Every structure is written in C-alpha cells, then in structure tokens.
Amino acid sequence: MEIVSRGSWSTDEKDKDKHTFTIPFSNKKEDGKYDTYDGIYVVSVTPFDMASNSAPSQESVIFEIDFTNPVISQRNGQSVSDTDKAYTNLEIFTDNTGVDDGFIPSVAMNDKNLDHIEYALTVYTPEYTSGKEIETIAPSISKNGNITQIVETSTENKMKEAVFALPEFKKDGIYSFDLTAVDKAGNKSVLCRNTSVLMMNSDVLAYITESKKADNIKDSTGWYSLQKDEKTPISKRPDDFKDLMITVFAPTDSKTNIVLRDQNGKTDDTGLTADDSEDMYAVGVYNYTLPGQFFIDNYPEGTNKDIYLRAENTYKGETSYISLAWIRIDALAPSCKVPSDLRKGKAFIKNSKTYTITDISESLNPEECKVYDNGKLMTNFTYSEADKSLSYTLDKGRHDLSFVLVDEAGNSYTVQEVSFIQVGLFYCLWFRILLGVIIAALVGVGIWLFRKKKSNA
Does an H or E element contain 355, and which? Predict the structure, then answer.
C-alpha cells in the first residue's frame, strides 16, 4: 500500500512542514458491516522536498491489526464448529448415559492472539438429610477467575488455545460456568454458557438460575437476592421480590411442582406450570418462572413470616423435594420501647443527654435509620444489633427530637417529634425563671434600700 501525503509549509519551529496520513484497516460496506484487514504491518516513510530530493526511509516498529474475535474450538475434547448454537450447552449425565472414569466437562477457545479465558463458575450440589429429602441446594461454589495457560495447537496457522475444565465432577449436582475468551487486542468471544448436570443418585435436581451476587444486595439476583448465606435469609417486603427463574431436572414420567412450605409444615402449591420443557436421556428439563407479583398478591401488609421455596417431584409413587431458598417476608414495621423521660419540655441540668431506644423488635438497616434534631438530619447515632438499641446524645441547648427506625426490609416506624427538650442548666426554663426572680428580687431590694436611705437623709 502506498500513500502520498502533502502538507503545507509552516514557519512555526515546533510544527514545520507537518504531514499526516491515514491507513485504513477497515472499510464500511453498503449493508453497514465492515471489511477488516487483519495483518502484520510496518510503516516506511520516505520524505521528498519540492526539488524531489529524498532522505533515507524510516520505518515504524512492526505491529499487528486484529479485529477477529476468539471462538469456541472444543467441548469435552471434541471439535466444535463456530456457530451460535455452539455457545449454549446443556448436558445431563445419568445412569443411562454413564460417565467414564475421570471424565471432566471442558470447553476450549482459540485465537491467533489468545490471551486468557474469563470464567464464572457456580456449583449447586444437594445436601441430603434423609432418604429422598434434600435439605438445600444453595450455590456451594461461586468463583470468578481467568485461565491464562495458553498452548499453540497448530504450527501452520499458529492458532493458540486455552481450556477451561471443571475442578471436579463427582458429586450429583448442577455445574454452571460462563466463559468469555479475550485476545491480546481486547477482542472478546461470544459469551459461552454451559450447564453440566450429574444425576447418578438423584431422582430430581433443581436450582434458581440467574443467581448472581453483587456488592449491593438490591442488585443481586436469584438465590443471592433471597439469602445472605445458607443460614441467613434476607428480610424482604412483598413488593421487593424480583422474578425467580427455576429449572428442575427429573425423570420424564414424573410430576414436578414448585411449592412454598411455612414453619408450621403447611405446604402451598404455587400453581406454576413450566414455561418450556425438553427431554434429554429420559430426563425432563422444566423451566419455571415465579413472578415477583406472586408475593404482592399473596402476602398483604402486616405479614411477617418465614417460608421455604421448594421443588417437589413425584416419581414411581415416591415424593422427594429440594429446598431451593429460605424466604423471609416482612411487611410489618419494627416496634420498640421509648425512654420514659423522652417528653415535651423535659429539662436536664447536665451539659449532655443520651436517649436510648430499646427492645427493638428486629434488625434495623442503620444506613436508612434517621434522627432529626431541631429538624436537621443527624448521622452520629449509635445502633447496636446485639443490644437491640439505638442511641443519640443531645448537646446543651434546646431540642426538638424525633427518630425513624427502618428495618432490613424497608419497613419504618417513627417516634414522633418531642419538642422543647432542655439540656444544660443555663438552657433550663425553670432555671431562667428562678434566675429572673432572684434578679428581680435583688433589684427590688436595691430600690427599697435606696429609697429608705434617701428618706432618712
């Protein structure tokens, strides 16, 4: 490629006879798409003056232009074509299919300039309590990372490949991993979503899909929007639930239901039907959506209870279930005990006064709680979850004071404003009245003495 650049002469010493040229590495076509020109380049510049005298050529460093995205190349050691379908995969292994000793699901991605594979791995493995009863199937592994071990697969086209393999694949469960390959130019592959299900000893497996943990609980999805950890549910108002996507794996001739069980053992069928289903190796794959509206419709204001979301399966006359999540519904405002001396017009001779709200009925969200002192929002209060208390200290002066307690679910209780609290001897009204009486008395005595002295004279 040869480009002639012509520039105008400049008298500026910093910008003499500056020339600019552009090298096109892509070309927009009529359909809006681009032809791209991947390759290895070097720029050679030969300057000529007006008399056609030239200086020796100067060359740039050798550089490479790369617009090509990495692609999938293998799955479980078998070659895979780069098609849209290849980037989403569900595979189920049962007694019928069998699993070779040492088999580990894997995916390989390749590119000429492959740098790494980004992965997000989540594993759901059931914990059995007795017989067919599965206590919970919470995410047991949730891990993000990079695969940086790169190998060259062909000396002819110099393709480089990286392989992601599950850490292990021995225990019944659902192994979900998302992969994105990235090359040295920053090009990224299509998101490759993979689910491997092992059902050698289980009649039913299920999990809440799209479960992602975020720094902010409100931004978390799926299981992480319902529980902090396996032993701690998140208090939520009925209008704070998002849609929950649930996938159930069970034999094709079984019956599956999504149910809710309360602490008293009462079980309610949600009445959900599978959005879609498919059969693989005599195993049915059933996808359900539990809408957030369900909780609004079924749990009114004043509700305060724990329930357990379960997938239930009946197969050959036996019923088994998996507990998917512990749900805490809280549509009840917190209660508390207010100090007896938090009263209008109360006076204290000391230079500070601490008020403590006690016996708070549930955990609060201190970031949402508020204290108003003379109408000003204050943040220097102290909350103790262990003591179930919230304290605030008044400095000397006169105060109008109120509290707003907000629980983890967002329900609030307001301690109504108490006005004219006096802190510090000088600010006490009774002291000022007394001081005024004393001063008036002294003035009166002074006037009386003055008049008496004058009359005697």
Answer: strand 352-357
The DSSP call for residue 207 is: E
Whole-number Å distance between alpha carbons of 442 and 422: 26
Instruction: Give CA–CA dist 413/401, Å, rounded.
Output: 15
With 0-12 / 13-18 / 19 or more C-beta atoms within 10 angstroms meaning exposed / middle / buried, residue 98 is: exposed
Q: Which amino acid is at 200?
A: M
Q: For residue 131, name the pLDDT band (cuts at 50, 70, 90).
A: very low
> Where do the H-state alpha helices sit in 235-393?
293-298
> In this structure, are residues 403 and 392 in contact, taking their beta carbons and an 8 Å threshold?
yes
What pLDDT score does 103 carry?
Answer: 94
Residue closest to 178 by CA, chosen among 139, 221, 145: 145
Name the one residue in this structure whose structure tokens are 């708070």: 360
Strands (E), 102-234: 106-111, 114-124, 127-130, 133-136, 139-147, 151-152, 160-165, 173-183, 192-199, 205-208, 227-229, 232-233
Give yes or no for a contact between 330 and 407, defined as CB atoms under 8 angstroms apart. yes
Whole-structure pTM over 0.85, yes or no?
no
Domain residue spans in the chain? 1-65, 71-329, 347-430
pLDDT at 435: 67
- CATH tag, 347-430: 2.60.40
Helix (H, G, I), strand (E, B) or coil at 299: coil
Q: What are phi and psi of 106, to 5 degrees?
A: -150, 160
Cα–Cα dist 288/310, whole Å: 12
Residues pairing with 306 in the sheet: 328
